[in-house]
Amino acid sequence: MPEVRVLPTPEALGSAVAGELLGTLAALTREVTGRKVDLALAGGSVNSLVLARVAQLPHPPALDWSRVRVWWVDERFVPSGDEQRNDREAYEALLGGLPDVETVPWPHQHGTLSLEEAGAQFSTTWASLMGGRAPDLSVVGCGPDGHFASLFPGHTSLDAPGPVLVEHESPKPPPHRLTLARDTVVRSHQLWLVAAGASKASVVQRALVGADLHEVPIAALATDRAVWWLDRAAAPHARGDGSGTGNGS
Q1: Counts for the chain of helices (H) and strands (E), in that order
Q2: Domains plus CATH for the chain?
Q3: Which is nearest to 47 in space by CA: 38, 55, 58?
Q4: How far apart are CA 111 and CA 95, in angstroms?
Q5: How many Å apart are CA 44 and CA 218, to the nearest integer?
Q6: Residue 110 near residue 80, CB atoms below 8 Å
Q7: What contacts 24+ positions apart, CB below 8 Å, involve 54-58?
Q8: Cα–Cα distances in angstroms (integers) from residue 54 to residues 47, 170, 195, 203, in the given order
Q9: Which end of the chain has a smaller Cβ tally under 10 Å, C or N?
Q10: How many CA atoms lie within 13 A of 74 on its CB side?
């Protein structure tokens, strides 16, 4: 079972995750030698709740952003700069103000580049920079259907080998996506799930009591090495006084 941390509101959740992210990255940049620290981010609430608050907090002096390399766990295959791109939101929320950080965005839709060609292109990039490694820290979100990255309930991609996959029929628009494979995300050295709102409560609870990952994909993230960050609405049965961080299931 993952460690579950429950905060009373989305705002408190975002602040808590942001503070922990800064401290964790500072520690990793000290501990990891001979290469950069690889951070994989989701879009959606990770951008709006977490990265926006990271930008507002004082950054630890020990955190050297030039030692951090940012990836995204998935991306919408749309033109560069499109408002649907996860990387655009992340740059606007935080990364645009961090000139020293390295980012590795997914390919964007342009010209005659096909989704398969984009996936193959990124596979080469991943192999060159990561080899067989998984990210040092992945921070992912989830949808009301329990999907994470662009891995959706009932889709064959949930069992596909990676590290890089393409998705032609996302039930959530836009339909064409690029995503890291399930195993690549699950093998992250540290893995955080961030979920806020009552619309996530059902899938969170189902995943925590052992739902089939093909029905609730985030069940694959319910490992002993993971931390699930939830607000009170997403964890209605969690114990705690609601005033800070509590552990429960």
Answers
A1: 7, 11
A2: 3-236 (3.40.50.1360)
A3: 55
A4: 27
A5: 16
A6: yes
A7: 54/18, 54/21, 54/22, 54/94, 55/93, 55/94, 55/97, 56/18, 57/15, 57/18, 57/19, 57/22
A8: 10, 30, 17, 27
A9: N
A10: 30
* Residues 6+ away with beta carbon under 8 Å from 1: 208, 222, 224, 249
- 123 pLDDT above the threshold of 60: yes
CB 76 within 8 A of CB 84: yes
- Taking only the tens place, the pLDDT of each residue in 39-63 is 999 999 999 999 999 999 999 999 9
When pLDDT is cut at 50, 70 and 90, the band that residue 24 belongs to is very high
Q: Which residues of 130-165 are buried (b: 16+ CB within 10 A; e: fewer)?
A: beeebbbbbbbbbbebbbbbbbbbebebbeeebbbb
**Joined tokens for residue 118:** 């984009």
Distance CA 192, CA 194 (A): 6
pTM: predicted TM-score of the whole model, two decimal places: 0.93
Q: What does residue 85 show for φ and ψ, rounded to 5 degrees?
A: -70, 135
